[in-house]
């Protein structure tokens, strides 16, 4: 399993807990112009068909005219507006959940503190990779029940997502045990969450590099723009994993000492569990390729491994690939 450097110092400045927002049903989604991805099997009907909504790792946001082209109508494409990261609301300042997360040793002993360490590692890696094109995500916000975001109100039913309007990653951490493992039969292990966080951070990188602006159609299917964007985030997650043990804290101490093959296997198994075909089968429906919005299990595993094995931005340009 991942082993953090006990000497490393953690930066808590971008990790927040918003606490409990007071509920939110299975059909809960993004208001204020935001909308959800259409999920095979339907949502809000109970059972797995309702739960499937939670496993989408990227929520379509149409905030202030933004349309990522993965579902719904309207909007002009992400590339048509400049994002100004929003200041954290009082709610997002939240609780002191991460106050004790100061060192890599804390990260070795606490999944909350490990989350801080992974955020630090992702930020350090992408700063090194992108240079002047980089800025960190505004925040990584955990919550329970519901939360207000730059893309509108979201409930726990939405699952982990990145909101491009406020450049923030949101997640209810009960998702991993309750849904990914419990409902979908996905793997257990700390690196499952780290893969998801790296995927969401990958959406932030796609945002910074302008790839979100290339998602202009509302088509679905295995070769659609929306699927290419999702697979790019998987590839970026693999890139970070490839370089994770080289990342450092502000003083130059390594953040991550060991990342094992078992960790990589957890990421691959998690990618399988959130493949569109796997979710369709799990919901009791037939596999309908033309309804895919995130890619099949094989596509997701493939592109994570492309990033992990090749470790370059060019290799992760899913929009340039003839087929993904």
How would the blueprint of this fold be written?
Layout: E1 3-4, E2 15-20, H1 47-55, H2 90-93, H3 104-109, H4 111-130, E3 139-144, E4 146-149, E5 152-155, E6 161-163, E7 168-171, H5 175-181, H6 190-209, H7 225-243, E8 256-258, H8 261-273, H9 276-282, H10 297-310
Parallel strand pairs: 2-3, 3-7
Antiparallel strand pairs: 1-8, 4-5, 6-7
Keywords:
alpha/beta, 4-stranded mixed sheet, 324 residues, two-stranded antiparallel ribbon
Commentary on this structure:
The protein is an alpha/beta fold and 324 residues long. The strands form 3 sheets. It has a 4-stranded mixed β-sheet. A two-stranded antiparallel ribbon has the order 1-8. A two-stranded antiparallel sheet has the order 4-5. The radius of gyration is 18 Å and the shape is globular. Helix 7 packs across helix 10. The protein contains 10 helices and 8 strands. Helices cover 37% and strands 10% of the residues. It has one domain. The longest helix has 20 residues. The relative contact order is 0.18.
């Amino acid at each position: 399993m991942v082993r953090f450097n006990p000497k490393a110092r953690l930066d808590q400045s971008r990790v927040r807990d918003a606490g409990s927002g007071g509920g939110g049903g299975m059909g809960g989604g993004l208001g204020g112009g935001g909308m959800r991805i259409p999920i095979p099997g339907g949502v809000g009907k109970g059972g797995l068909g309702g739960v499937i909504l939670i496993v989408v790792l990227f929520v379509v946001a149409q905030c202030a005219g933004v349309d990522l082209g993965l579902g719904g109508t309207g909007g002009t494409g992400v590339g048509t507006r400049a994002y100004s990261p929003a200041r954290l609301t009082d709610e997002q300042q939240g609780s002191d959940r991460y106050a004790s997360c100061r060192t890599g040793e804390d990260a070795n002993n606490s999944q909350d503190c490990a989350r801080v360490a992974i955020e630090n590692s992702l930020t350090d890696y992408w700063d090194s990779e992108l240079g002047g094109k980089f800025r960190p995500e505004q925040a990584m916000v955990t919550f329970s029940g519901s939360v207000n975001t730059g893309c509108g109100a979201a409930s726990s039913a939405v699952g982990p997502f990145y909101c491009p309007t406020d450049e923030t990653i949101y997640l209810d951490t009960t998702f991993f045990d309750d849904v990914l493992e419990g409902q979908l039969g996905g793997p257990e292990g700390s690196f499952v969450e780290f893969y998801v966080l790296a995927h969401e951070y990958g959406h932030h990188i796609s945002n910074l590099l302008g790839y979100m602006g290339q998602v202009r159609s509302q088509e679905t299917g295995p070769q659609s723009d929306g699927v290419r964007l999702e697979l790019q985030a998987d590839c970026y997650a693999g890139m970070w994993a490839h370089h994770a043990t080289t990342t450092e804290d502000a003083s130059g101490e390594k953040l991550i000492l060991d990342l094992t093959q078992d960790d990589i296997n957890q990421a691959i198994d998690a990618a399988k569990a959130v493949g569109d075909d796997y979710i369709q089968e799990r919901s009791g429906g037939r596999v309908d390729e033309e309804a895919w919005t995130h890619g099949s299990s094989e596509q997701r595993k493939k592109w994570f491994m492309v990033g992990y094995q090749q470790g370059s931005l060019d290799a992760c340009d899913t929009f340039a690939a003839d087929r993904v």
